[in-house]
Design a protein that fits this description.
The complex is a heterotrimer of chains A (about 190), B (about 220) and C (about 210). By secondary structure, chain A is of the alpha/beta class. Chain A contains 5 helices and 8 strands, in the order E-E-E-H-E-E-H-H-H-E-H-E-E. The model of chain A has no long low-confidence stretch (mean pLDDT about 85). Helix content of chain C is about 80%, strand content about 0%. Classes of the chains: A alpha/beta (about 190), B mainly alpha (about 220), C mainly alpha (about 210). Chain A: GO terms for molecular function: ATP binding; ATP hydrolysis activity; transmembrane transporter activity.
């Protein structure tokens, strides 16, 4: 099943064209790696897929209106003045929070779960943000540079978790300037082919 | 909606600076003013109300400052957009939470001080109600200014929402006169209540459009 | 361009005709246009938000400084006029106050547009503010009227006390039209240069630089 598809997407900012006539689709259980140099519009493309940014031309189609998408961008959306647990409680109800606890354990964050998020390192904050994405049990995961800031162990862990999600039929779209170990389609914004 | 109300009140109550700050400023102004003039020469009762009005304007401005900035900067707005598809509920719950946690205490302090400065006991409830309503109006308007300026500083927010706030101040002044002279109070309260309802319904719509533009 | 030369030739000529009241020929038209320019901007803002007409936003951006300027001229000339007639340059009168608020609104619009680097965002935010502002204008007028009748005895009123003599009304009328044409041509000039600067990457614009 095609979760989300893009048709002839063109985007220009202040009259400068960033990309032109892009078309692609992501099925459930399929990964899409968006590649490209700095400023090639990777993040913008993700935001267009999410419906946050409106493309200059073209259309984004979703399989259903309430397709459950979870997203992590450059900004972590973590409140510094709350603890990791409180941060997760902002979003999850009593049932969902149990899943989130398990993720805290898997990502090795259980020992800092009651400290203020401000005292966490950059990598730990990133992990926390990833937990929020994964624990939402989404149908489509959209990640912007998920490996930046993670150490080797954590990056391997993330690779593993993402592959697990893919095998469960979750769709995945992510940007990264390094080639990850996940097997997936590649969209190169500079070469403009899938 | 319930989730958002819970989330926003939890966030605000954990930010001591944004929550307690405005209340302290209100108290500070109201105490400092009588100390700065020679009370024996002036009839304090007559214009103490205008001090309350001005400090109400100031505190509601301080209280709403950065209302959306934090959520915009840390990416929470984008997350919220993915869940709710627009910001109407978020803005509405933010305003409700701000009015309940900051607006009502401020109104209470204002009413308390006006009481302490020679207003009849019977007027306490009137002043309290009046100040709550004005806070509701002002918070809506300043939230709009803040949504426009978002992370570009408070000055821009004031510049764009001050013209909107001035009629509220005039209305408030009028209402206070009617308390002092005891006529037409209920019609003004009704007017303010109506305005408050209309604004609370309309403003989140407009603010939502502004926020959408920002994250675009 | 015809209107520009026409306006420039006529407006000053008329202004000299009156003696002590001659500033009326500057003051009254500029106050009239202070609001008209704003209404024009509001129409453009509506067009920009509803139909996404880019040109409408450019027009707002070029009209706003002109509006601010003319409002300032209106306030300033009013002050100068106020010194001989009222003996003071400023009165907290209903009309002056609402004009001052209008001036603040113009400044707000300009500052708002200037603070964002993404010009398309700035256009949309500016349009939102302009539309809220136009709803606000009658409210301000009403409330300020209410306020000033409350606080001030009606000792001073700008109009009403003397009806204007027809021999003065005529040049006044012409000077209003003259200023109108001047503003329109000024607007055309400034929007021309602004549109060119915004569309400088387009082929058609390059031909006109």
């Amino acid at each position: 099943m095609t979760l989300v598809s893009a048709q002839n997407i063109t985007y220009s900012i202040n009259e400068n064209k960033l990309f032109h006539n892009l078309s692609f689709g992501v099925n459930s259980g399929e990964g899409l790696h968006i590649k490209g140099g700095n400023g090639s519009g990777k993040s913008t493309l993700l935001r267009i897929i999410l419906g946050i940014t409106t493309p200059t031309k073209g259309l984004i189609k979703r399989c259903s209106e309430d397709l459950k998408i979870s997203y992590l961008g450059h900004k972590n959306a973590i409140k510094n003045y709350l603890t990791p647990i409180e941060n997760l409680e902002l979003l999850f109800n009593d049932v969902e929070i149990k899943i989130a606890y398990e993720w805290l354990y898997k990502f090795n964050l259980s020992h800092v779960q009651d400290e203020l998020a401000a005292s966490l390192s950059f990598g730990q904050q990133k992990k926390l943000a990833l937990i929020r994405v994964l624990a939402q049990s989404p149908e489509l995961i959209v990640l912007d540079e998920p490996f930046v800031g993670l150490d080797q162990t954590a990056a391997d862990q993330l690779n593993h978790f993402l592959e697990e999600q893919l095998s469960e039929g979750v769709g995945l779209i992510f940007t990264s300037h390094i080639n990850p170990k996940i097997s997936c389609k590649v969209l190169d914004l500079e070469a403009k082919n899938v | 909606m319930f989730r958002l109300l819970k989330t926003e009140s939890f966030k605000l109550s954990n930010k001591l600076k944004s929550w307690l700050g405005p209340l302290l400023i209100m108290v500070l102004v109201l105490i400092a003013f009588p100390l700065s003039i020679d009370i024996s020469q002036y009839d304090l009762e007559k214009f103490y109300f205008s001090i309350i009005v001005v400090s109400l304007l100031m505190t509601s401005f301080v209280a709403t400052e950065g209302m959306f900035e934090e959520d915009f900067e840390d990416g929470s707005l984008e997350q919220e957009f993915l869940i709710e598809k627009d910001f109407y509920k978020l803005v509405l719950s933010k305003i409700i939470v701000y009015v309940c946690l900051i607006g009502i205490p401020i109104a209470f302090i204002g009413a308390l001080f006006s009481f302490a400065n020679g207003v009849a006991i019977g007027s306490f409830a009137k002043v309290f109600l009046l100040l709550i309503l004005s806070n509701l109006l002002l918070f809506n308007l300043f939230a709009f200014g803040n949504a426009l300026s978002i992370n570009k500083g408070a000055m821009l927010g004031v510049l764009s929402s001050l013209p909107l706030a001035l009629p509220v101040i005039i209305l408030l002044g009028r209402a206070i006169r009617s308390i002092q002279f005891g006529d037409g109070f209920s019609s003004i309260i009704a007017l303010m209540f109506g305005l408050g309802l209309i604004l609370s319904a309309m403003m989140p719509l407009i603010i939502s459009a502004a926020l959408k533009t920002h994250i675009d | 361009m015809l209107g520009w030369t026409w306006g420039l030739l006529f407006a000053p000529q008329d202004a000299v005709q009156g003696n002590s009241y001659r500033i009326i020929f500057l003051h009254v038209p500029s106050v009239i246009f202070a609001e008209l320019v704003y209404f024009f901007m509001a129409i453009c803002a509506l067009m920009h938000l509803v139909w996404r007409v880019k040109l409408a936003a450019y027009l707002i951006k070029s009209a706003a400084p002109i509006g601010a300027m003319i409002t300032f001229i209106g306030l300033f000339s009013g002050s100068i006029w106020g010194i001989p007639t009222w003996g003071t340059w400023w009165q907290w009168d209903a009309r002056i106050t609402s004009t001052l608020i209008l001036f603040i609104m113009y400044l707000g619009i300009l500052t708002l547009h200037g603070s964002f680097s993404n010009l398309e965002k700035a256009d949309r935010l500016m349009s939102i503010l302009v539309i809220i502002g136009v709803v606000n204008i009658p409210i301000i007028k009403k409330s300020v009227d209410w306020w000033s009748t409350l606080h001030q005895p009606a000792s001073i009123s700008v109009s009403g006390s003397t009806s204007i003599d027809p021999s003065m009304l005529y040049p006044l009328f012409i000077s209003v039209i003259g200023l109108g044409f001047t503003l329109i041509s000024l607007g055309i000039l400034s929007s021309r240069s602004y549109i060119l600067s915004r569309e400088k990457n387009k082929k058609w614009a390059l031909k006109h630089v």
